[in-house]
Design goal:
It comes from Paraburkholderia sediminicola. Keywords: Signal. InterPro entries: ABC_2-AEP-bd, Ferric-bd. One of its GO terms (molecular function) is thiamine binding. One of its GO terms (biological process) is thiamine transport. The termini are far apart. The relative contact order is 0.18. Strands 1, 2, 3, 4, 5, 6, 7, 8, 9 and 10 form a 10-stranded mixed sheet that branches. The protein is built from 14 helices and 10 strands. It is 42% helix and 18% strand. It is globular, with a radius of gyration of 22 Å. Helix 6 crosses helix 7. The protein has 2 domains: 172 residues, Periplasmic binding protein-like II (D-Maltodextrin-Binding Protein, domain 2); 149 residues, 3-Layer(aba) Sandwich (D-Maltodextrin-Binding Protein, domain 2). The protein is an alpha/beta fold and 336 residues long.
């Protein structure tokens, strides 16, 4: 009996020691909730000695948290954050240059231009208008085809969109309008659009969710959530405005101050792998690994051609000024 107890205690102690021996990686992310588990499960299966600990929030909140912690960083890796935000962190000298294993197999334009890169792209996401056919018919709303259409008086109070302060999708909307239309005309456009916006919410996916449930007939969002809701049977159409789509990339970067550089590099290696890109391709029409993306229902074949020119460095350098101006103009409609 004593021997059995001794063996059991030894096994238990060994299990505890094994668990304690795992390297803990603190990973800040803005990934959609349903995407977090597949990446974690696949990575930890291949690296059983490393455990991912997520800290998840919207893009704006994660970016603000990282900047606030600049002098006392906590995160080891930033994963699934907007490339525009990672560019901002890089301008602050916060990211570690690292070329992950297999990097040469990725589409080069979807990562940081430095050699070695300071962040590596995962996927492209672009602006999409979610339009509820049923609610629109009830309210006698025509189907818009352009950004300009959304400024028509018929849509007054019918639109919800993400706040650029808290949402990466909201920020790519604002910066794309400023870059595509020009500074003055971009703000004029947003002044006109604001007259029709009922509320600015703190999530890029929520406007499409609200359109899907019919709370608002039109939500300015991105294709991930629209595609998911369509698959669930929501009566929404995905509209890709003819002037072109603002876009950003989810990407991975290693914090220069990480205390677990070897484990962090292994996670960056995994995110650049074909396996990780195959996970990503479940939801995104454009991924970093060539030939992995597949046709997604509701996404046009010429999707990549609709993406407007996007200067991530400009977006990063002008972020504070743009958000300050935006809040002065429209912040009174932000979700509390």
């Amino acid at each position: 009996m004593a021997l059995r107890c001794l063996v059991a205690a030894t096994v238990t102690l060994g299990a505890v020691q094994f668990a304690q021996a795992k390297t803990q990686l603190l990973v800040y992310t803005a990934l959609e909730d349903e995407a977090m588990k597949p990446y974690k499960d696949a990575f930890e299966k291949a690296n059983p000695d490393i455990e991912i600990r997520w800290v998840r929030d919207s893009t704006g909140a994660v970016t603000a948290k990282l900047l606030a912690e600049k002098n006392n960083p906590r995160a080891d890796v930033v994963l699934g954050l907007a490339a525009s935000s990672l560019t901002l962190l890089d301008l602050q000298g916060m990211l570690m240059p690292y070329s992950p294993k297999g990097f040469d197999s990725l589409t080069r334009k979807y990562s940081d231009a430095n050699t070695p890169p300071h962040w590596v792209g995962m996927d492209v996401w672009g602006a999409t208008v979610c339009y509820n056919r049923v609610e629109a018919e009830k309210r006698h709303l025509p189907k818009p085809t352009s950004w300009e259409d959304l400024t028509k008086p018929v849509y007054k109070g019918m639109i919800v969109m993400p706040s650029p302060v808290s949402s990466g999708t909201g920020y790519l909307d604002v910066t794309s309008w400023l870059q595509t239309f020009g500074k003055d005309k971009g703000w004029q456009y947003m002044d006109a659009l604001d007259k029709n916006v009922a509320q600015y919410v703190h999530s890029g996916s929520k406007p499409c969710t609200l359109a899907g449930t019919g709370e608002f007939p039109i939500g300015i969002s991105f294709e991930f959530r629209g595609h998911e809701l369509q698959a669930q049977g929501a009566p929404i159409d995905l509209i890709f405005p003819k002037e072109g789509l603002g876009w950003d990339m989810e990407a991975t970067g290693i914090m220069k101050t990480t205390r677990q550089p070897d484990a962090a590099k292994k996670l960056a290696d995994f995110m650049a792998s074909k396996e990780a890109n195959e996970i990503t391709a479940q939801w995104w029409a454009i991924v970093a690994y060539p030939g992995v993306a597949k046709k997604l229902s509701g996404i046009p074949d010429n999707y990549s051609e609709l993406l407007v020119k996007n200067d991530f460095t400009w977006s990063a350098k002008n972020r504070d000024a743009i958000l300050e101006d935006w809040q002065k103009r429209y912040g009174n409609k932000e979700q509390k």
